[in-house]
Write a structure and sequence with these properties.
alpha/beta, D-Maltodextrin-Binding Protein, domain 2, Dipeptide-binding Protein, domain 3, 2 domains, 3-stranded parallel beta sheet, 3-stranded antiparallel beta sheet, 13 helices, signal
């Protein structure tokens, strides 16, 4: 099977190339949806499970042989989406919830009748082996960290509106004392113990990692946040160079990494439930299902 992946430079070209489709081409009257978007789906990081699932399962299972997935990043995807949305141009992106884009734009998931993207995923907290013995209070706080999609989306929206991630986390923590108190219940203060939290540059993981950093520092830890790609994030916790991560999307997105390093980390379970993966389009587009892309 041909690799359905377009280089990162294509993501930038696509943001400009979509303009050629014209702002009125939201249905089929000006050509099929496939023709309008040049048979391209705007994706994110090439190593993301969402990308692998789309390329290796969704495209072949739905017979979308002529379609490609544009490699880029979460930021490049969001920029392409904004550019198209502002002009009411057609665009298809790989999407997930929670994400600030659903609060900023009127979007919809394309139906997935084959169920390839699966049901709702969880976001889990993963820590290195031995953390409970070395830093029991950090372990307890991380184990008690749990929130809802509306909580994380508030932080994400603050960041999207221009706040620095650390400032957004500080504001959210100050406004949600009851929930934060549940996370810190039974946690003793420490005196400057160092922790390293690994995270990927996805909007939701940036938000959650900075909130956790803020709360850990409030009880006396010195936290170092290190941004890496998904593979090094998992490898770092598995080899002990990182203490924890709070952005493990399971059971689908990070399934390969979970299997690769199984037995070399401790899974503290979900800190967020009710997530979703799939293909996302603006609500103004006259298409409702992935099946409708076949033959487009």
């Amino acid at each position: 099977m041909l690799k359905k992946l377009v280089g990162v430079t294509s993501a930038l070209a696509l943001t400009f190339g979509l303009a050629a489709c014209g702002g009125e081409q939201t249905g089929g009257s000006a050509g099929t949806v496939g023709e309008q978007v040049d048979y391209k789906i705007v994706g994110i990081d090439p190593g993301a499970g969402l990308m692998n699932l789309t390329i290796n399962n969704v495209l072949p299972e739905y017979g979308l042989d002529e379609w490609d997935v544009v490699e880029g990043s979460g930021a490049a995807m969001a920029a392409a989406l904004k550019k198209a949305y502002d002009k009411e141009e057609p665009i298809i992106v790989t999407g997930w919830s929670p994400h600030w884009k659903f609060a900023s734009y009127d979007l919809k998931y394309l139906e997935d009748p084959k169920g390839i993207y699966g049901g709702a995923e969880d976001v889990n907290t993963i820590v290195r082996q031995g953390l409970n013995e070395d830093h029991p209070d950090a372990y307890k706080l991380l184990d008690q960290f749990n929130w809802e999609p509306e909580h994380i989306e508030t932080v994400m929206n603050l960041i999207q509106a221009g706040s620095e991630p650390a400032d957004a986390a500080t504001q959210w923590v100050s406004e949600n004392g009851d929930l934060v108190s549940a996370w810190t219940k039974g946690v003793s203060e420490v005196d400057g113990a160092e922790l390293t939290i690994l995270y990927v540059a996805w909007d939701d993981v940036i938000a959650s990692s900075h909130v956790v950093e803020n709360v850990l520092e409030s009880v006396g830890y010195e936290v170092k946040l290190v941004q890496v790609d998904a593979g090094p994030m998992w490898a770092g916790v598995a080899d002990g160079s990182g203490d924890a991560m709070v952005g493990a999307w399971l059971p689908t997105t990070h399934a390969d990494y979970y299997a690769e390093y199984d037995g070399k980390f401790e899974d503290l379970g979900p800190n967020l439930t009710g997530t979703k993966l799939g293909l996302v389009v603006p609500a103004y587009m006259d298409i409702d299902s992935i099946e409708d892309l076949k033959g487009e």
